[in-house]
Automatic annotation (TrEMBL):
The lineage of its organism: Bacteria, Pseudomonadati, Pseudomonadota, Betaproteobacteria, Burkholderiales. This is Methyl-accepting chemotaxis protein. Residues 1-23 are annotated as: Disordered. Residues 14-23 have a biased composition (Low complexity).
Length: 47
């Protein structure tokens, strides 16, 4: 029985690690592109 629950547990742990990694990458990307925003960017997108 332990063998049958081991794989789903491992998959869940891998999915959790991947989600955490993607969240960190998204944070880093937002930080990197933040220098490209302008004060009136929202007004331009509202057109």
């Amino acid at each position: 029985m332990a063998r049958s629950t081991s794989r789903p547990t491992r998959l869940a742990e891998e999915a959790s690690a991947a989600a955490q990694s993607m969240a960190e990458q998204a944070r880093a990307l937002r930080e990197a592109v933040a220098v490209f925003t302008t004060p009136d960017a929202d007004a331009w997108h509202a057109r």
